[in-house]
């Protein structure tokens, strides 16, 4: 299997008044990619400009960042033509790799705008190289700029940054270093959720070295999501036992929900649910479960109690 290291540049409206602005907030104007073999050696490259069809003026910030003028884009081809050539160039067996999480979503949004055949009808597993760099060298949570990683790894800067091909090129260089850093690092896949699971069979259940993730199918609303047993269950991802909750599901903000359960063999496990909306205003759930310390459990209990106290005060104050 090959890796397709992808980077996109896109333009947007200066005014937000165009009728297409909601359907296509970011119009792709350049596709750059590097093809790596399974040993992370470069075996191909792709670099094409896209002729704009929606936004005919360059956004003031975009133009300064990528040093590109609209007249340069007039040499490009329409997006469907460029995208078809790109996907043909990708081949049959490959996995996308990007710096960050946005590129695959915007690629699929642009394809949908032009009524092209979708890349997939369910979540796409890909490698977020920005996240992999944090796992390998930092705290798993921080997200650094690509140029920071290049400097940190002492990789030669032989072409300018902030164009699609050059950023794909440097991301591929980082991947080559990460490939030899730690066995199993590339098993830490991410999921693009432009198309959430449509049915139970498409739901995602995956276990990583420090946590487990579950991505549910779509539900009509939040109430039906939380009525589903799989959504609200607490399981130990190490021994797969169903657990009784020490702290039941609660939300401090209406978007994120937390619970704590206890496993006799492995200790406390924190569950976290994030509710997300689909394009059709339905909802789905992204749930993560991870082992935590007793001190972490007590801090979650303190937050839950604080939330309850605040609600009581608001109720008394009328």
Explain how this protein is built.
The chain is of the alpha+beta class and 318 residues long. The protein has two domains: 2-187, 2-Layer Sandwich (Nucleotidyltransferase, domain 5); 200-317, no CATH class. It has helices at residues 60-66, 70-73, 79-90, 103-113, 129-137, 146-152, 164-179, 222-226, 229-232, 294-317, and strands spanning 2-11, 27-36, 42-49, 94-98, 124-128, 190-192, 204-207, 212-215, 245-250, 256-263, 267-277, 283-292. A six-stranded mixed sheet has the order 3-2-1-4-5-6. A six-stranded antiparallel sheet has the order 7-8-12-11-10-9, with helices on one face. The N and C termini lie far apart (62 Å).
Which percent range describes the beta-strand content? 25-35%
Strand/helix succession: EEEHHHEHEHHHEEEHHEEEEH
- Within CATH, the superfamily of the largest domain carries the name Ribonuclease H-like superfamily/Ribonuclease H
Strand order of the largest sheet: 3-2-1-4-5-6
CATH class of the largest domain: Alpha Beta
Task: List the defining traits of the structure above.
318 residues; alpha+beta; Nucleotidyltransferase, domain 5; 2 domains; six-stranded mixed β-sheet; six-stranded antiparallel β-sheet; 12 strands
Topology:
Layout: E1 2-11, E2 27-36, E3 42-49, H1 60-66, H2 70-73, H3 79-90, E4 94-98, H4 103-113, E5 124-128, H5 129-137, H6 146-152, H7 164-179, E6 190-192, E7 204-207, E8 212-215, H8 222-226, H9 229-232, E9 245-250, E10 256-263, E11 267-277, E12 283-292, H10 294-317
Parallel strand pairs: 1-4, 4-5
Antiparallel strand pairs: 1-2, 2-3, 5-6, 7-8, 8-12, 9-10, 10-11, 11-12
């Amino acid at each position: 299997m090959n890796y397709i290291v992808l980077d996109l540049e896109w333009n947007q409206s200066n005014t937000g008044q165009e009728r297409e602005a909601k359907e296509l907030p970011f119009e792709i104007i350049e596709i750059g990619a590097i093809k790596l073999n399974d040993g992370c050696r470069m075996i191909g490259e792709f670099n094409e400009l896209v002729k704009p069809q929606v936004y005919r003026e360059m956004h003031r910030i975009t133009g300064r960042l990528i040093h590109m003028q609209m007249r340069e884009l007039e040499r490009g081809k329409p997006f469907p033509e460029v995208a078809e050539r790109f996907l043909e160039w990708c081949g049959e067996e490959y996995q996308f790799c990007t710096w960050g999480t946005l590129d695959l979503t915007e690629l699929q949004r642009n394809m949908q705008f032009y009524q092209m055949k979708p890349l997939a009808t369910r979540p796409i597993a890909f490698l977020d190289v920005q996240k992999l760099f944090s796992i390998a060298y930092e705290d798993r949570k921080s997200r650094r700029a690509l140029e920071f990683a290049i400097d940190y790894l002492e990789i030669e800067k032989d072409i300018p940054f902030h164009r699609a091909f050059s950023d794909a090129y440097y991301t591929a260089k980082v991947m080559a270093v990460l490939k030899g850093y730690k066995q199993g690092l590339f098993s830490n896949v991410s999921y693009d959720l432009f198309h959430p699971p449509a049915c139970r069979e498409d739901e995602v259940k995956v276990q990583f070295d420090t946590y487990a993730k579950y991505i549910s199918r779509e539900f009509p609303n939040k109430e039906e999501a939380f009525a589903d047993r799989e959504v609200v269950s607490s399981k130990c991802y190490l021994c797969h036992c169903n657990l009784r909750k020490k702290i039941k599901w609660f939300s401090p903000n209406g978007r994120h929900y937390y619970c704590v359960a206890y496993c006799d063999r492995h200790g406390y496990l924190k569950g976290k649910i994030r509710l997300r909306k689909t394009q059709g205003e339905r909802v789905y759930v992204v749930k993560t479960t991870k082992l935590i310390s007793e001190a972490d459990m007590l801090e979650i209990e303190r937050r839950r109690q604080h939330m309850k106290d605040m609600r009581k005060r608001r109720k008394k104050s009328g």
